[in-house]
Amino acid sequence: MRRFTEWGGRLSATRALFAVFALSFAILSSGHLYAQANAGITGTVTDSSGAVIDGANVTITNQGTGVLSHATSSSAGTYSVTGLVPGIYSITVEATGFKKGVQNSVNVEVSTTSTINIVLSTGSTAETVEVTASAIALNTTQPQLGSTVEPIVVKALPSEVSGRGRQIDALQFLAPGVTGSAFSHRISGGVDFEQEIVYNGVPAPQPETEGYTTNFNPPYEMVQEFRVERTTFAAQFGLGQGALTYQMASGTNKYHGDLFEINRNSFFDSKGFFNTTVPTDHENNYGFTVGGPISIPKLYDGRNRTFGHYSQEWYQQNNENTNSSTVPTALEKTGDFTDFVDSNGNIIPIYDPTTGKQFEYEGRLNVIDPARISKNSASLL
User: Fold this and answer.
1) pLDDT reading at 348 higher than 90
2) How big, in percent rounded to 5, are the helix, strand and coil portions of the chain?
3) Listing from the earlier edge strand, what are the strands of the sheet with 87-94?
């Protein structure tokens, strides 16, 4: 796979062009509009003795986009922010009589609420205690167990191109307890076609074959994070026996883009044990992504508040069909089956389904009366 990554340009013309492109895409293709998933951060603010602190101001910042979310700790010292886009966040807590507390590199996963407790030290609010190590984010608010495939893993996985290009539903088989194939799969021993599919927090139901998404999978490059809910499902997942939650990628405060091509060719294949030559199989899966800020207008404190991400890919396949098939001859297409013979040259009778007798027309056996062939059939033939 060839990949070209990272655009860092800030030219005004480039930004204007991207803004027009992203806005036009949003208007024309609402199916890929970015939505917030069911993810968030909760926790308790305490002092060094363990006493809760109420009225503390909590600011949660997406480190990729700079988007801010605010909360205030309750009388029990708790705070909660929901509706976050999965990603890496920093938490800043300020309270009168205490040093400012900052917790960086908090990972918020798709479809989960991370619990991060903050301990403030007494002192001046002009002083800051900053924790740079990644916090261990525990999910203490939801009953279900699941497995998350994070962005770094999604990008590092080997890509298989076969039959329909790369398919995002193949990611589910990385989670324990998932068995079957792309068409028929089960989670933790559940039954077929009972999985709920969620894109960016929005369910994608089907009246039939629920959980089979191969026919309307979004581009592989568009997926940022993926989660398989395996046991004890929350009410938001309805009656499904398992849930597959996909979070699409978001633009950030820097422009990013990549071009890719995945090539599968007979040149790289062996002929196999049963073949005399290498079967023809040429496959190309190629496309691009582009993402970044849409900075018209800039709001609040100068941070970009609107972000765009676009992915598109194509798939082409050229392979050799080695199956044997039988097609009617030119004579048979006219209704004349006098050439329909066995290996000894004897005519194989064909019968009229209305009479049970062998077809006969003008004294000739195995010939269908042209008047019996409809105009539509004659046209198709």
Assistant:
1) yes
2) 15, 35, 50
3) 68-72, 57-62, 87-94, 100-108, 128-131
Q: How far is CA 262 from the centre of its chain?
A: 18
Q: Alpha carbon of 333 to those of 327, 368, 373: distances in Å? A: 10, 10, 10
Q: Which tokens go with 2?
A: 């060839």
| Whether 5 contacts 256, CB under 8 Å | yes
| CB-based contact 291:250 (threshold 8 Å) | yes
pLDDT tens for 20-39 read: 444 444 433 333 334 445 68
Which of 35-49, 53-67, 252-266 is predicted least confidently?
Answer: 35-49
Spatial separation of the C-alpha atoms in residues 289 and 21, rounded to whole Å = 13
- pLDDT, position 24: 43
Give strand pairing partners of 231: 145
Mean pLDDT of 103-121: 86
Over its C-alpha atoms, the chain yields an Rg (Å, rounded) of: 31
Q: Backbone phi, then psi, for 115, in 5-degree steps?
A: -105, 115
Contact, 270 vs 286, CB < 8 A?
Answer: no
Burial (CB < 10 A; 0-12, 13-18, 19+), residue 224, is buried
Distance CA 227, CA 221 (A): 16
Answer whether residue 300 shows pLDDT above 80.
no
> Encoding tokens for residue 216?
């309307």
Question: CA angle at residue 249 from 246 to 250, to 5 degrees?
Answer: 135
How would you class 308 by CB atoms within 10 Å of its CB: exposed for 0-12, middle for 13-18, buried for 19 or more? buried
> For residue 172, how many other CB atoms are within 10 A of its CB?
22
Pairing of strands 40-47, 118-120: parallel
Specify which residues 89 forms β-bridges with: 62, 106
Write down the pTM of the prediction.
Answer: 0.59
Rounded Cα gap, residues 74 and 5, in angstroms: 44
For residues 151 and 85, what is the distance between their CA atoms, to the nearest angstrom?
13
CA 312/CA 263 separation, integer angstroms = 17
Q: Are 104 and 130 in contact (CB under 8 A)?
A: yes
CA dihedral 86, 89, 95, 101 (to 10 degrees): 150
CA distance linking residue 266 with residue 264, whole number of Å:
7
Q: Which two tokens stand for residue 231?
A: 């046991």
Model confidence over 49-74: pLDDT tens digits? 899 999 999 999 988 888 889 999 99
Type of residue numbered 319 = N
